Every structure is written in structure tokens, then in C-alpha cells.
Amino acid sequence: MATQLVEFPRTALNKLGGLDGDALTHWQASGCLVIEEFMTVSECQVLKHAADRLVDEFEPNEAATIFSTRDARHAKSEYFETSGDKIRCFLEEDAVDDAGRLIVPKSQAINKIGHALHDLDPVFERFSYQPLLATLTKQLGLSDPLLLQSMLIFKQPSIGGEVTWHQDGTFLFTEPQSVIGFWFALEDATLENGCLWILPGQHDRGLRSRFMRQDGSLQMVDYPNARDFDESKAVPLEVPAGTLVVLHGSLPHYSAPNLSQKSRYAYTLHAISASAAYPESNWLQRGSHLPLRPWI
Ligand code: FE2
What we know:
The chain is of the alpha+beta class. The chain has one domain: Jelly Rolls, CATH 2.60.120.620. Helix content is 25%, strand content 23%. The protein contains nine helices and 13 strands. The protein has helices spanning 21-30, 41-57, 60-69, 72-81, 106-109, 117-120, 122-128, 131-139, 168-171; strands at 32-35, 87-91, 110-115, 145-153, 163-166, 180-185, 196-198, 209-214, 217-222, 235-237, 244-248, 253-255, 266-273. It has a seven-stranded antiparallel beta sheet with strand order 1-11-6-13-4-3-2. Strands 5-12-7-10 form a four-stranded antiparallel beta sheet, with no helix packed on it. Strands 8-9 form a two-stranded antiparallel sheet. Helix 3 packs across helix 4 (72-81). The longest helix is centred in the first third of the chain and has 17 residues, at 41-57. The termini are far apart. Fe (ii) ion binds next to loops.
């Protein structure tokens, strides 16, 4: 990847907590907004402590048992596939041995927690459904948003892995495309600890692939006529804690492994339009006990 260290423009909210016309033009052109100081330091701390509490409560043997006593690949897939309406911890690949036993301390072993923190944990619920975010989402074109997914991504020192180039719409597909990603930096994100990288403007190329259930299993299906990402145009988003990065569902993004000694906690939310079609072939499905709920 070329290191084209261009500073991506920052966007400020207006006095009403909304976006001005220039910001919306920038959003449409680039597929991304970087809004610094969206969260206070204490809000970051509250979410970090809530995340650490969930890690404390996590019983690694639960996942380890699942993975070691059954066909590991199938069990891992099932653990993931049924997590859309739960709070589950997912381990770093390098954190477990072949039998699924932890080989690093639990506090360093978790890659992420997903995928319904926003509906099942009161701390994350309060933050996720805040009016300011709802206003912003509406301005970005989602007049009837539903919060579909939430994740706490840890990117722990030395072990936090790479997230390869992808578009969120690949995984959270709607027709028409409606997903918007909200990425909240709970800690400073830098080149050293694995900040986001984006390909500004390449959201207009459409989706390159879809991750979907086909022939009984989840598969990555490439669109034959899709244009490739031009990774030579990659721009890093080094941002301070409290920053909100908004990502169009078709915007390619990436993050490097964390080779530093500092963690890089981020909280993410994904909203979709209630009026868009949400296929049953998407990986993320929720049971009737926990339907998606109107937000605004
Ligand atoms: Fe993503």
C-alpha cells in the first residue's frame, strides 16, 4: 500500500448539532466524514469501562469449549452467525491454541464484542440511541434509520489484527444500499496502533462483493463487473479520542495490525433504512424476541 499521507478534512457540527451544506457536499463526494470532539473524554471512559466489564464477565471456556468439542470451523461459524441478537466476545486468532485454549491473558485476547450491545447493554443503549446521532443520521439521508449492529473493537497492543479492505455494505446488504457506519474513537487512533484507512470517493464504484448465505453456508460472492479498489489512493485517518468517523456503506476502508504498545478501542454502529429490503441471505439475523426498533 502506498503511504500517501494526505490529511483528510475534518468536519465540525454547527451550533444545532447538525451538518451544514458544505459538510453534506463533502459527504457525498468522499463517502466519509471525520467529526472531532463528537464525544467527551468522560463519554469515552464510560464506554471503555463498560467494554472492560463485558470482557470481565466473559467466560473464555464457553467459546473454547464450543470450538474444541465440535468441528472447529463449523462451530466458529455458528457462534458468529447467531450473534446478531446477542452480546458475544470474539477472540483474536493468535490468542488461542488449536484446542481453543487461551494462550494470552483474557484482557488481551478479545478482538471484538458484537453485535447487539446497543439493544442489550444499558450503557451502550443510552449512547447509541442519543438524539444527536439520530439527527445526524437523518441529515445523511436515512429518514427512517434502524440500528442494526454494534461492535466494540479492541485492537489490543501487539495482538490486534489487521482488518482487510472491505465495504460494510458487503456484510450488511440492503436494497437499495442504505447502510451507514459510525466509528467512534474511544482512544487515540494512530498509524502505530492501527487507525482506519479509507479510499475517499470510491464509494461511487458500488459494492465489490457480497457476504451471503448460499447453498447452506456463508460465502463471499464477488460481483463480476465490479471495479477494483485503487489502494494507491489510500488515506489514513489518525484521530484523537472522541472523534466520530462516518462511513458510507460502499466506502472501502481498512485498518492495519496494532504493532504498538497502546490499545486502540473503537465503538461502531451501523444503521440501515427501515424501508430498504433486508434479505434473509444476510449473515446478521435477529430473532423475533428482539426486533429492530424505530429510532427517530
Ligand atoms: Fe467496516
